[in-house]
Design a protein that fits this description.
257 residues, 2 domains, rod-shaped, Serine Threonine Protein Phosphatase 5, Tetratricopeptide repeat
Length: 257
């Protein structure tokens, strides 16, 4: 009987021991599982935080990039505006430069014109070329304009002033011719004869010389000195036989004889 109880006790102890070991093993496995889950959660949390940090950095970088793009666009617009302004400025400068150059040309032309008014110039009158200063040319043309308008007293005065003022002028022979004609128109025949003869004495080969001789004869006819007129007309035909004045002289000689 004792042996039986001992066997039962042994079995019971063995069973208790086995149960205890099984329980401890189960408890150990639960702890391991919990720690694994905790570790997993911690890793997931770390990964989530890392992902969040990465997303935050990406968002910040994206925002920074957008700001940079906006700044770049602003700079581009500013550059475009500046380029447009510079183009406008360049066009204005071009216009201003053209205006300045035009003013310079106008000033230079004005200076040249003023200088030409004081500088001698080559002129040709009655086939004779010579140098005359501007004042000389102006006074001669003014006197001739008076004669052509039929203002004979004014023309006579202007040509008389001219020959006194410019005694060595290339215009002088022609001025003497027109002075004589103005005097003839004013019936100052003796004065006209004197100036026609002054022309012939100064320039016997002048293109107006044959006309001057004929005009002397006309003045002599007006003075009723037909004998002197015939001698003058004969001299004209002999001195200038091929001239138109000589042809006119022959006709008048025929009427005077």
């Amino acid at each position: 009987m004792k042996i039986f109880h001992r066997s039962v006790l042994a079995v019971a102890l063995a069973s208790a021991t086995l149960f205890s070991a099984s329980a401890q093993a189960a408890l150990f496995e639960d702890d391991e599982a919990r720690r694994a889950i905790i570790d997993l959660r911690q890793r997931m949390e770390q990964q989530r935080q890392a992902l969040g940090d990465e997303l935050k950095r990406a968002t910040e970088e994206n925002a920074s990039l957008r700001r940079s793009l906006l700044d770049l666009q602003s700079q581009i617009e500013a550059l475009r505006s500046e380029a447009a302004r510079l183009r406008g400025t360049d066009e204005q400068i071009t216009r201003d430069l053209a205006d300045v150059q035009k003013r310079q040309r106008d000033i230079a032309q004005g200076v040249d014109d003023r200088l030409r008014r004081f500088e001698p110039a080559q002129v040709t009158v009655d086939g004779k070329e010579f140098t005359a200063d501007p004042n000389e040319q102006r006074d001669f043309e003014a006197a001739l304009a008076s004669f052509r308008k039929g203002e004979f007293p004014a023309a006579q005065s202007a040509f008389a002033d001219f020959v006194r003022k410019y005694p060595s002028s290339g215009y002088r022979p022609t001025a003497l011719f027109w002075l004589g004609n103005a005097q003839y128109a004013n019936r100052d025949y003796r004065g006209a004869i004197g100036n026609f003869r002054a022309l012939l004495q100064q320039a016997p080969d002048h293109p107006r010389a044959p006309e001057a001789v004929l005009s002397i004869a006309n003045c002599q006819i007006e003075l009723k000195d037909n004998a002197a007129a015939r001698r003058t007309l004969d001299d004209l035909v002999k001195a200038y036989p091929q001239s138109e004045a000589a042809s006119a002289a022959r006709e008048r000689l025929a009427r005077l004889r």
